[in-house]
Amino acid sequence: MNKDAQMRAAINQKLIETGERERLKELLRAKLIECGWKDQLKAHCKEVIKEKGLEHVTVDDLVAEITPKG
Amino acid sequence: MDEKGPFSWVLMTTGIHAGRGTPQVCVAPAPPRPVAAEPGEQGEEPPLVEAEEAEEAETAETAEKAERKVEAEAKVEGKAEAAGKAEAAGKVETAGKVDAAGKVETAEGPGRRVELKLEPESEPVREAEQEPKGEQKPELEDENPARSGGGGGRDEVPPPTLPSDPSRPPDPSPRCSHVNSFKVGENWRQELRVIYQCFVWCGTPETRKSKAKSCICHVCGTHLNRLHSCLSCVFFGCFTEKHIHEHAETKQHNLAVDLYYGGIYCFMCKDYVYDKDIEQIAKEEQGEALKLQASSSTEVSHQQCSMPGLGEKYPTWETTKPELELLGHNPRRRRITSSFTIGLRGLINLGNTCFMNCIVQALTHTPILRDFFLSDRHRCEMPSPELCLVCEMSSLFRELYSGNPSPHVPYKLLHLVWIHARHLAGYRQQDAHEFLIAALDVLHRHCKGDDAGKAANNPNHCNCIIDQIFTGGLQSDVTCQACHGVSTTIDPCWDISLDLPGSCTSFWPLSPGRESSVNGESHIPGIPTLTDCLRRFTRPEHLGSSAKIKCGSCQSYQESTKQLTMKKLPVVACFHFKRFEHSAKQRRKITTYISFPLELDMTPFMASSKESRMNGQLQLPTNSGNDENKYSLFAVVNHQGTLESGHYTSFIRHHKDQWFKCDDAVITKASIKDVLDSEGNSSEIKLTSRLPLVEGTDHQREQLCLALPDRSAHLGETLLSLSNRGAIQAQP
């Protein structure tokens, strides 16, 4: 791992240890809900599912479809 | 600490896959077993057997590992029972299955000794062989409060009372049979919980440490890329790079858990699978972790946050039995149409209380305030909640938005106002503006509970809903005429009180009515506009030779000019016309009609616009492209009559563009023209809300109210079944 990645990993570790990462995640989640991002993506998911059919769609499909949009 | 994780993995392996020599863990035909055994497996022989065959080579290895780990475990725990456990673990292979006689021998595990205390004094050695008396008693599970991560050295985390793992047999997963093969033995629930606690949703500092250290991909070392953990052994692999897939193939471990969201992925089915039992466990663990997070974060963090407390997820609403009953008894559903009148309700005049009624109507139609109270955001922390004005506002909102058309009698509100704002007590006529300020003040003081605890007494850092909505920053610049040094102060303000032409203190540099097209006001020459008043309010004013200010840089008293501008615009701006004049000479009411617009751009009156103003360029094009400072009118409070005796009425905007006149108990539809012209009335207070937010909140409001019809579609089915079958079913 190069230095950059090492630093990232170290920072990530610290973030997890102190619990800050969770807090940040929750904060981000709340903000995204508030601004409607979550709902928009949800609507997009529904469209994708409608296209592919409920029985045949997999999480991987959804991930592939909505990741660029998100 | 890491030992706990891997050990439980290994134990599980040996528990499921029957260890050495006895491959028939699930094939044994089951005589009626009263215990939580593995009935789900009875239909699942083929996949399990296959897995077993693949595993056989491994079991020898893993069993050894088990013993080694147990010893290490013993060291970690340092308890006398560890020795017993080592033995017990040695018996795991034979003990961890159902024998043909139908008696369950529960597999032993460290930290789980508690769960097997049928007799409190039983030694661990015996536990492995112990047969539970009759059925597996529910208290068995109840006695298992020790979180697996919490045994041994983690005593500082008080074992939370877990909802008892049901003693009923695990429900077979309808779609994925591989999951069912995982749900074998007595420990899978506990071990799954360990995984969740240690690697997915970490609530305690210890589990966080373990997660930080160990959750990286064993192949590429990343902590990103959708890390998954194998459910059958200690392996972390990332999903995006398919490292976990490789592991699954080579080791034939079919299940992995997503460390981010906790979902279970089955590599055979190539999709995430949702097993009811596992989902239940996951939900519980997540809830626990969040609770732990919330309780620690409120002590530790000082960051202000206007959200309902970090760690508090937005819980999904699952109807409970009593709720279902309630819904069944009240079958009427509300739909939001453009003609709905919910929120419009008259207020009885309790004796010259029209001043209060008008302000209440205005406040209850303030979009963000309305959303705050209707979503029940107030957490009361007053020592006596009956005295809390915010609670009373909350119930007032409930009353006014209940759909009840008869006028409401706000006697409790009046009583509280008298208690908290003595100067307003009594039945004589009061000033609506005074009431507004007093009410905001009391609400702000009583909002302590909503403001993350601290800084409620610090006016500069309060984050209560009142401050968030109404507080703006008024900048006052005093310029020394000698050295031209500027001394700036910014004061919080809840409203903008404007002097009117015709008052004895007024000083109108511009003839009223000129250059008033900035805000699209009806430009009738001679009629002053709100913009005129604001312009006057924000003009530099010579303080005169009798009011010299000490200049810091000149170190002497100098003549100076003072200018007021808006530094920070509030979300809701209240403009107050000072119609009641109490000067030495006289007390009178100024009745000059002031025209005002429906939409107001405050940009010219902001501190940042001072420069352009001094250069004489006051007017900004109305389409300045910047909507940040634009306001939209939503309430107007009018006063008719004289200083001694008069009457307050108000116009409020309801649902985007419908206006209603509120005259105490009588609400009538009004037109925009009525509002703007208010001929014969003299408007006193105008409340405007920032533009973009109005639309946003209407959207939210529709969402809020529509939430009921949306869910009711689903509930409708349930209720239908209610009426059809006459029995109440719990939510599936």
TrEMBL record, chain A:
What does the UniProt keyword field contain? Activator, Chromatin regulator, mRNA transport, Nucleus, Protein transport, Transcription, Transcription regulation, Translocation, Transport
Question: The organism sits in which domain of life?
Answer: Eukaryota
| GO-annotated cellular components | nuclear pore; nucleoplasm; SAGA complex
Q: What is its main location?
A: nucleus
Location comes to:
Nucleus, Nucleoplasm
Q: Name one GO biological process term.
A: protein transport
Molecular-function annotations in GO: transcription coactivator activity
- A Pfam family annotated for this UniProt entry: EnY2
Would I find Transcription regulation among this entry's keywords? yes
Q: Which HAMAP family match?
A: ENY2_Sus1
Please describe what this protein does.
Involved in mRNA export coupled transcription activation by association with both the TREX-2 and the SAGA complexes. The transcription regulatory histone acetylation (HAT) complex SAGA is a multiprotein complex that activates transcription by remodeling chromatin and mediating histone acetylation and deubiquitination. Within the SAGA complex, participates in a subcomplex that specifically deubiquitinates both histones H2A and H2B. The SAGA complex is recruited to specific gene promoters by activators such as MYC, where it is required for transcription.
Q: What is this protein called?
A: Transcription and mRNA export factor ENY2
Q: Which organism is it from?
A: Galemys pyrenaicus
Q: What lineage is this protein's organism placed in? A: Eukaryota, Metazoa, Chordata, Craniata, Vertebrata
From TrEMBL, chain B:
Q: Which residues form the UBP-type domain?
A: 174-292
Low complexity: bias regions: 35-49
Q: Which domain of life is it from?
A: Eukaryota
Q: By its UniProt entry, which Pfam families does this protein fall under?
A: UCH, zf-UBP
- Is Protease there in the keyword field? yes
Which positions fall inside the USP domain?
A: 345-691
Q: What class of enzyme is it?
A: hydrolase
The record's EC number reads 3.4.19.12
The protein, known as: Ubiquitin carboxyl-terminal hydrolase
Q: Whose protein is this, by species? A: Galemys pyrenaicus
